[in-house]
Design a protein that fits this description.
Blueprint: E1 2-6, H1 12-18, H2 30-37, E2 43-50, E3 57-61, E4 64-70, H3 80-93, E5 97-101, H4 106-117, E6 124-127, H5 132-135, H6 145-148, H7 153-158, H8 162-182, E7 185-188, H9 191-200, E8 205-208, E9 228-234, H10 244-257, E10 262-265, H11 275-279, H12 283-294, E11 301-303, H13 309-318, E12 319-324, H14 333-341, E13 345-348, E14 364-366, H15 371-383, H16 385-402, H17 405-423
Parallel strand pairs: 1-2, 1-5, 2-4, 5-6, 6-7, 7-8, 9-10, 9-12, 10-11, 12-13, 13-14
Antiparallel strand pairs: 3-4
Helix pairs in contact: 3-4, 4-8, 10-12, 10-15, 14-16, 15-16
């Protein structure tokens, strides 16, 4: 089977091979690509956009072929030439199956159009990751209205204020919807992505397959006796959807009972008031700073910068509680990673989260716009080690099923075989 993956970016080992920086993303596809490339009858090729490059790059690494396609991933403008680039790759590689990972960026729509033009739709499947067309509806994330329409000098120049970002989601979402409308097959894993994809395209065939996570999260385990008591970890904080501001609203209530509570999160240090840092500030950064100052939280929030896979898994294990305060998600990998490690979880009830975790058995699930309930559940875990240990054991057991690498590989291969049979 000749299998062409189209991904949002290079997997880390390929990025390193061609000398590009992809940040911290892409790690969760590494293990799956390794598993597939090790199967004797599968020839795997990965195509991905590479910005600021004039020519396509081609190579082979660890039995995986790759094409780096010149493409500005975050663009909101469609260009027919981008379709032709994917047509060229398909003609050259001659795949039996095309698997497009995600619909969030326009290159996925271009790839779908290429498959349509080359009569490959029966052999093409889209994996639903997030859906920007739906995320746009929740982008503001319960931020105070007066902050939503503000704009810093930096945002004015780069046109990436909260309003601009939401507008970009809407624009990209239009191409996402068009991609799903012409798709014949999608892969999903939650009630949410099933509902959304079928409402966009009632004729699409839905295939269920859970996700495999990053390798480090299978090799470590949380220990209540080794964690930093009354510490909270939030894995992302860069934009409103991730909901750090909701946790900051909850923190004063938590501090009344547990005054030594610390929130740890990734990303740039918003407490740095140097000129260079201030010039880089976005409106959401200013909103976080406003909340930190309003509630005198300066000594209770730590920004860790960027963390690699090993550092991230260590930070999970050091934490007393993991919190996902998002305003929208499909099935957040961060919740799966926390559960797989056995870290007690408190998560907002959004998107497909309820398919991942059972309330009061494997963690707490709270109303997304209710910081007072978030505070209540965090305090429950801080107060009662029996609850923490129950959530740790039950959550880990569930995640080991959901994110079982061998089972998920076999399900994916079954989907691939079904697509092959339909096209015969």
């Amino acid at each position: 089977m000749k299998l062409l993956w189209i991904t949002n970016q290079a997997i880390p080992i390929i990025a390193e091979d061609i000398g590009i920086n992809i940040g911290r993303g892409g790690g969760w596809l590494v293990e799956l690509s390794r598993q597939l490339s090790a199967i004797s009858n599968i020839e795997l090729c990965i195509a991905f956009p590479i910005p600021n490059n004039k020519e396509s790059l081609y190579g082979t690494l660890n039995d995986i072929q790759y094409y780096a396609v010149p493409f500005e991933k975050n663009t909101t403008k469609f260009n027919l030439r981008e379709v032709e680039k994917f047509e060229s790759i398909i003609r050259e590689f001659k795949p039996d199956l095309v698997h497009i990972w995600g619909t969030e960026y326009i290159h996925s729509y271009c790839a779908m159009m290429a498959c349509k033009n080359l009569n490959l739709l029966d052999n093409t499947v889209i994996s639903i990751q997030g859906l920007v067309s739906i995320y746009a509806k929740h982008f503001d994330g319960y931020i105070e209205e007066k902050y939503i329409n503000k704009c810093t000098i930096r945002e004015l120049i780069k046109r990436d204020s909260i309003v601009h970002q939401k507008r970009d989601f809407v624009k990209r979402g239009k191409y996402e919807i068009e991609a799903l409308k012409i798709a014949k097959h999608v892969i999903g894993r939650t009630d949410w992505d099933s509902a959304c994809s079928s409402q966009i395209n009632p004729n699409v065939q839905y295939h269920f397959c859970n996700e495999t996570l990053r390798n480090q999260f299978y090799n470590k385990a949380w220990d209540i006796n080794q964690c930093e008591r009354h510490s909270i970890f939030v894995s992302q904080s860069q934009y409103p959807i991730k909901g750090l501001h909701i946790l900051l609203e909850a923190l004063p209530t938590i501090l009344k009972k547990y005054p030594n509570t610390i929130i740890y999160t990734t990303g740039r240090n918003r407490l740095d008031r140097g000129l260079k840092a201030i010039l880089k500030e976005k409106t959401y950064d200013k909103y976080l700073i406003k909340l930190i100052k309003k509630y005198s939280l300066e000594n209770h929030v730590v920004f860790l910068g960027g963390l690699n896979e090993n550092e991230m898994s260590d930070r999970f294990c050091k934490s007393h509680v993991f919190v996902s305060a998002s305003s929208i998600e499909n099935s957040p990998n961060s919740v799966g990673e926390a559960m797989l490690l056995g870290v007690p979880v408190v998560t907002s009830d959004v998107g497909g989260v309820k398919n991942m975790i059972v309330h009061e058995e494997e963690g707490y699930v709270y109303q997304a716009d209710a910081p007072y309930m978030l505070a209540h559940y965090i305090c429950n875990i801080f107060h009662n080690d029996e609850i923490a240990l129950k959530f740790s054991q039950n959550g880990r057991r569930h995640a080991q099923i959901t994110h079982n690498r061998e089972v998920n590989l076999e399900k994916l291969l079954k989907i691939y075989r079904e697509l092959e049979k339909q096209s015969d």
